Amino acid sequence: MFMEDIHIHEIEGDLRVGYYKDSYWRFFRDAWKVIEPQTTLIEGWYMYYLCEQLENVLHRVMGKLPRENDLVINVPPATSKSSLISILFPAWCWIHAPHLKFITVSHDASLANSHAGKSRDVIQSQWYQELFGHIFKLKIDVNKISEYATDKGGLRVAAGMQSIPIGKHADIFICDDPTNPLKATSLKEMKKVNMIWDRSVSTRMTNPNVSTKIIVMQRLAIADLSGHCLRKPGNRYRSICLPAKKRANICPPELVEMYDKHGGLLAPERLAKKILEDFKLELGTNAYTGQYDQEPVPEGGTLMKSAWIQQRTFKWLEDLAFELDQDIIWNMWIDGAYTEDTTNDPTGILIGCKVGPHLFIRFAEWVWMELPDLIKHIPQLAIINELGSESKVFVEPKASGLSAAQTLRRYSKLNVIIDKPPVDDKVVRFKAGLPFAEGGHFIVLDGAPWAKMYTDELEAFPFSEYDDLADCTSMAISWAKEDIESDSIIGVSAI
Fold first, then answer.
1. Which pLDDT band holds residue 164 (cuts at 50, 70, 90)?
2. Which residues contact 452 (CB under 8 A, 6 or more apart)?
3. Best CA proximity match to 355, nearest among 391, 314, 326
4. Per-residue pLDDT tens for 332-347?
């Protein structure tokens, strides 16, 4: 059962305390009147479900039971997610265990402080104090919006994502909207948040085996914190995904039944179909798909549409080359990072050829290697993929690329070429190649094990986790669109 009809006026005396302690949903529903006295709560089935999940978190932490995984909750805006998770949940937890410590963060310190301040207002309210004031008190000497404590050892610290407090530890760590939606197109911003999460948050737990992290946010990009955490190996994070409308990504899948009972909608009284259609027009497809569908890439792709990427076999390529009386000459494109640190960008490597009007991609990969290992890897890759004496290896023209090109020339027989310096940014260069792909000239080896990884990056760009293969693709399409003449290439080297 997802909703209850009993209300507090039916309960008298001391039973009220147990009534609220036994059910976070009951507490949330009535505490809402404290934080929003002028606004009637529009109840939703998903609220009751999330309350149950949060109850499970608290009882496991209180029982010091081992954590199987942390929690990622993806839910649209205007669904009271912050009230449910960041504002009222810590206040309810303290009536069970006032010694618990919380760290709550958002993309901006002022937002995190606002949530913490509202939570403190609830705790200090007459309603809360009459019911639970005998359980704990807020300490006078530690009582500001960004940090307050209980007289039983509990603590709540609020901070911006960029300034997670050092020396503070949490039993429950709540991260609410770690990235500003206005910065959703910034891959650099996404990676900064992910790095902070990996390097700082894991060390902020009071008990690494028990303490729990909760991320609640709308999806913004492939590389956002949700995507970053859910891709980690070993099921370290459990997904609760609640799109505004019934979609294949609903998680857990059994919640599909609840969508069916409510007209295929998450919150029909808040986010009706007409309202969602209006949001889609206002936000645009890309932003709407992430924030409301919880899909960071619109169906069919963002800039590069999936329908434009042709898939063909080697046999098709060989037949075409024979028909055109043309040799197949494989070339390589490298966008290098030259590091083995997997928290950084990888080196992207692409191998393809031009036959007739078509660019055929036979291999793509990400590698995390320091320069010496990469210098060994590239010639081996060239041999495996049949690069010959007429083949070229194009290296992106940046400082690290120049060093890599010089080293490759010194220690291999590859024909290494520094690609033309770009005059536009990555997105503009990528867009320049889209008509070539839309015309049916961009072809990927059918059935290749790397193909999905590669095409996913292209279809997600510029919201992809990495953009190195997208850069390689821009270089390759630019090369395929023009005649390769020595006087149009910068820095041609001797073999």
1. confident
2. none
3. 326
4. 999 988 777 766 789 9
- Eight-class DSSP state of 489: S
pTM of the model: 0.73
Does the CA dihedral 80-81-87-88 come out positive or negative?
positive
The vertex-431 CA angle with 427 and 437, nearest 5°, equals 140
| Distance (Å, whole) CA 196 – CA 107 | 12
Token output for 185: 């197109």
Cα(193)–Cα(436) distance, integer angstroms: 35
- CA proximity to 240, closest of 230, 249, 251, 225: 251
List, in sequence order, the alpha helices (H) in 343-450: 371-384, 399-411, 426-432, 434-438
Decide if pLDDT at 230 tops 80: yes
The total number of residues written for the chain in this structure: 495
| Phi, psi at 379, each rounded to 5° | -60, -35
CB 67 within 8 A of CB 210: yes
Task: Look up residue 314 and give its amino acid.
Answer: F
According to DSSP, residue 271 is labeled S
359 sits in which H/E element: strand 358-367
Among 453, 451, 457, smallest CA distance to 470 is for: 457
- Phi, psi angle pair for 92, to nearest 5°: -70, -40
Maximum CA extent, the chain: 92
Q: What is the pLDDT of residue 489?
A: 38
Q: Which domains does the chain have, with CATH numbers?
A: 8-291 (3.40.50.300), 306-488 (3.30.420.320)
* Nearest CA-CA partner of 124 in 132, 11, 164: 132
| Residues 122, 110 contacting (CB under 8 angstroms) | no
Contacts (Cβ under 8 Å, ≥6 apart) of 291: 76, 77, 181, 218, 219, 220, 283
